Amino acid sequence: MSDRILALAESQTIAMAKKARELAAQGHDVINLSFGEPDFQTPDYIKEAAKQAIDEGFTFYTPVAGYPELRQEIADKFKRDNNLNYKPENIVVSTGAKQSIANAVLCLVNPGDEVIIFSPYWVSYEEIVKLAEGVPVPVMGRLENDYKVTAEQLEKAITTNTKIVLYSSPCNPTGAVYSTEELQALAKVLEKHPQVHVIADEIYEYINFEGGHASMAGIAAIRDRVITINGFSKGYAMTGWRVGYLAASKEIAAACDKMQSQITSGTCSIAQKAATAALKGGKAAPEEMAAAYRRRRDLVLQLMNEIPGFQTYVPSGAFYIFPDVSHYFGKRYQGQTISSALDLSLFLLTDAHVAVVSGEAFGAGQCIRFSFAASDEKLTEALRRIKNSLAKLN
Ligand code: PMP
Ligand code: GLU
Q1: In the chain, how many domains are there?
Q2: CB-CB neighbours of 113 under 10 Å
Q3: 11 CA closest ligand 2 atom index
Q4: Residue 252 to residues 84, 174, 199, 249, 255: CA-CA distances in angstroms?
Q5: Cis peptide before 120 (omega within 30 of 0)
Q6: How much is the pLDDT for 236?
Q7: Do 366 and 234 belong to one domain?
Q8: Domain membership of residue 69 as a residue range
Q9: pTM of the model
Q10: Ligand 2 centre from 30 Cα, in Å?
């Protein structure tokens, strides 16, 4: 095995979902709040477009960066939603936003380059940077600031080796959303460091409970250094179709196209046709789902406030809540001590049969992540069970 694969950690979100499935296969009634995936079906009009694509013979290799029609739809989406001016040549469509992020990192990072990652962060960021032989530099947002990183913190973390700043907004796992003012303050710092690029992961853009999505690429002074990541998995409930994209300068987009041409080629022809239809259909379906997530967020917050020792805040977007659970560290049950978020999440899985993801993988070992992309009934039952199980600890 290569050093590369030996050094790579398994994705903890995927690992926990696997454990939950295994327990369920043994006959246990497991409620899985571990995986970050919409529980909604892909809207029918999108499924119909895929069926039509098969019937019309879209079964051949596609251009590596995606069908021109889809890239144009994506460019139009950026104009419509974000007031960003991109041409199809700035867009690269990939097999999920995960690949878009990997493309960008692999195209920009040399061994030893530092990548500042706003923490808590999505599990795959750190590992993708390591794959590129870069050095992840997590910068932790404070709970008092809804876990968002400030301009002062960014300033302190930048060195001459910094190549990229990488973050998500709305954030997985915290649900924090950066405002225009906050992004402008960060961009002011970046203006002084022309070698630093930004990867802004906006995949949860359509799941925003406060409104007002802001894009770093909207800030003219640094625009050419910003790579915006987005995709269809979350907003349009299309996780299995594997379509994501990035928008970047022509040079960076061309580099990502070249990278992808040697690794996967263009993403699935049928999925691209479905994605094109998704965008043509506008935001009605995403808005309906976002309204359900908002209601569930409020339900979860209300139920979580009844659980002693869970330190919460109000997530502004995405479908996660990431309470600080360190209150329970050092407590015991049946001779075993809970000494970490991982211990607590394993206890909740075995005792309450509720799967969550422990915060270590997100750079925050005092927290655990709950996905609220589940029905009201499941959420209510999961939190009832968790409350009962935690009451056993002393
Ligand atoms: N970024 C974030 C923050 C995510 O939570 C996810 C979830 N899978 C992704 C990127 C990747 O999404 P996908 O590859 O399904 O488009
Ligand atoms: N992004 C989702 C999550 O955070 C899906 C799993 C993954 O791709 O890691 O759970």
Answers
A1: 2
A2: 18
A3: 9
A4: 17, 29, 12, 5, 5
A5: yes
A6: 98
A7: no
A8: 44-281
A9: 0.96
A10: 19
